[in-house]
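Open question from group meeting: does this chain pack into something compact, or does most of it stay loose? Before anyone orders reagents, we agreed to write out a predicted structure and look at it together. Recording both the input and the output here so the notebook holds the full record.
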Amino acid sequence: MPQPPIRIRLTLLYGTLFMACGGILLGVTYLLLEAGLAERFQAAGALYVTKEGGITPVPEASLDPLEQDLRASQAAGSTGLRELEEGYRAVALQSLLRQGALALGVLTVVATFFGYLMAGRVLRPLDRIAQTAQRIASRGDLAERLAFTGPRDEVTRLADTFDTMMGRLEKSFQDQQRFIADASHELRTPLAINRTLIEVALRRRTATEDTRRLGVSLLTVNERNERLINGLLALSKGEAGVADCTPVDLAALTRHTAELHRPQADAAGIGLRLELRPATASGNAVMVERIIHNLLENAVRYNGPHGWVRLATGTAPDGGAALTVENTGPVVADQDIEALFQPFRRLAADRTDSERGSGLGLAIVRAIARSHGGEVTALPRKHGGLIVTAALPRWVPPPYRGGHRGTGAGDTDSAR
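Structure tokens returned:
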């Protein structure tokens, strides 16, 4: 059973403590009143008092009603006196318990209500910290800070510690991205030089057949390294986040990307099926196109003979924009799905020794989707292949401004 929120638990704690303290106070009052009544009855039962060394009767007019009743009962006999004492004591103590319990109940309700308000006020800074952490987790904006102002208490120290931690995380993340970008950029130049030298050597008339075969092999290795570097750059940019979001017509962008890949699919004997419905996402069009490109490229590349790829766009269950890429291909185990989204992981090998790609395609897709505040999920097909769904936030026009709306596409066509 899930525990109630901490505010409710604090409120219940305040109410319980107040009721316990009130009950203890009522019990102490009960005991003191009981002892006081016993002393009062004992003093009021005396028929005579000592005055100036003699014994004289107490005047009837100087007695209160209780003492007058006690004197009358004493005159009637000791049994009547005890019964009257017990009756008065019982009435007084029962009245105290009844009225005290009623007052304690009302005050407990009032104290619980004010305890709820006080708990909310105390927990408000913590709620602000939690909301900021949620925004950072959903948007990936490590530059956001609490900048909490107030008295130097435990909450302020917690907020300052949170800001310090986020600053160190942001710096570490930026250093990592800068290293990947710089290293990839520095490696591009020698690879370009190598490619040029190999191509020049292959064009020479004096090149032997062995030299040409070696040159082709070197070009293949060089192209593979270039794909790896480009993938690392794309992964670095995808994890960096999106600064300015614009409306992206997901259906139109998917159609455009599919047409670019159609020659490659036709050459491999793979049919493309488009089921495009209107879907306007919020994000960067170039990065969203990279998502479509990588998913479609993987679906065509890791397919089977005479297979097919289905691309569908529409509205996700949460109201966002969704792209689904389904393809035939080899059977994938459930436990291998998550590994496909890790860099340099494939179905058949863990390293980058494949000539078909760099092993960064799905890792880049997930990084870009999460930087947009979305997510990518994959499910294995029963007869082989994958169903990959990329969910992106829906475009919402900013208030008091003219929002852009994508044209969308609402047709369904099929091609083999």
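Observations to bring back to the group:
DSSP finds eight helices and ten strands in the chain.
Strands lie at 48-51, 54-57, 246-249, 271-276, 280-283, 308-315, 321-327, 375-380, 386-392, 412-414.
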